[in-house]
């Protein structure tokens, strides 16, 4: 493919001593060479691929030296983008990195858009769409576990599964086609129907299995939305502070927060918690007072996890009961705080209300019980079916939507079969499902269905 040569600073902005300007495209080497001066006068156009060269960046207009650099030259297609790629390692800090970028832009490179290098890797066939999206996720991954999940997708786990499913659909379509073309046996129709049904049911089950992982996938990627509730003075702020202090805060301040709800990320034993409305807890102590009843109901409704705090040294009040009612049916962990003070709370009443919610005794003042709380959080989300490792997780909302559509089309096909609809009509639904799955990996050109069908026929006969 033929693209303009793009350039961008590919290291994080800020402190780093070394900054890298990366170029990709047909002209990458030529452009870099026009601003590069080697001590011995060699040209980057003559060097071997995948080698690194010392020299200086010089502005050809003024002959002024801009920075001392190391330049890596990598020729396509053995590069991430599959295009010729040059990386200029600058030493002079942020200012000179920017100057070098400006130099190559002056020489005809185009400033890359965010994600454009990855996009090219996709367009040049180096990675498929789901892998490209996974690279984006990788950049944004908030915890190690989310990172592993993204890595799994980069390696193409999801793609591999999707490809296998599509192949199965394709073979079914091809087989049905053969049966229609060669109806020399009496029972061909019945055979076709049976085969069709079996295969469809299998594909449907596999899609459902993938979809089941999507909830956990989303949670890992976006964090478990967690809300701390409780009457004034029970210890909500103390709980928030101890969670933030004991665990690495992933994002301490979200810049430019003008929204009503402020969030804070912490990593609790690999579980990314998104603590919602921390401002409400810190500032006015009362989420309802600060953002209003309606708004706080919304916040509660969207929460994945509720930490409901009670006061060990106080009665179990009507207000506490109302809090339990407000979060009915959700994932709740009950904390009985201030266990260092004499008990006034009726524990039996609490147990009655709590049902099967875990109850954790804490004294946040004396730093007791936080470990048990963390244990409860992690087992709530990692016990049972959620095991990291080999499993493939679907976390991207576009993928989830497409999987749902593919599943719907398969269900339509199955219904058609049951209702005795002619097989070539049922095929349309199956083809649709094949296309939806293909969109996940960015490979759904209709012609390729025809091509593949064609090649299968040739093989088959
Ligand atoms: P909030 O109003 O629910 O946010 O409660 P705070 O976290 O602001 O705590 C209210 C008061 O209770 C503060 O003076 C805390 O120091 C105190 N406190 C919090 N946890 C404990 C605890 O476990 N034991 C005791 N004795 N005091 C606590
Ligand atoms: Zn408070």
UniProtKB/TrEMBL annotation:
Cofactor-binding details, from the entry: Binds 1 potassium ion per subunit.
Residues reported to bind K(+): 233, 252, 254, 257
Swiss-Prot/TrEMBL cofactor(s): K(+)
Positions contributing to (6S)-5-formyl-5,6,7,8-tetrahydrofolate binding: 22, 87, 126, 461
Binding site for GTP: 233-238, 252-258, 277-280
EC number: 3.6.-.-
Gene3D superfamilies hit by this protein: P-loop containing nucleotide triphosphate hydrolases, Probable tRNA modification gtpase trme, domain 1, tRNA modification GTPase MnmE domain 2
Family annotation (HAMAP family): GTPase_MnmE
Oligomeric and partner information: Homodimer. Heterotetramer of two MnmE and two MnmG subunits.
Role noted for this protein: Exhibits a very high intrinsic GTPase hydrolysis rate. Involved in the addition of a carboxymethylaminomethyl (cmnm) group at the wobble position (U34) of certain tRNAs, forming tRNA-cmnm(5)s(2)U34.
Protein name: tRNA modification GTPase MnmE
Natural source organism: Pradoshia eiseniae
Source organism phylogeny: Bacteria, Bacillati, Bacillota, Bacilli, Bacillales
Gene that this sequence comes from: mnmE
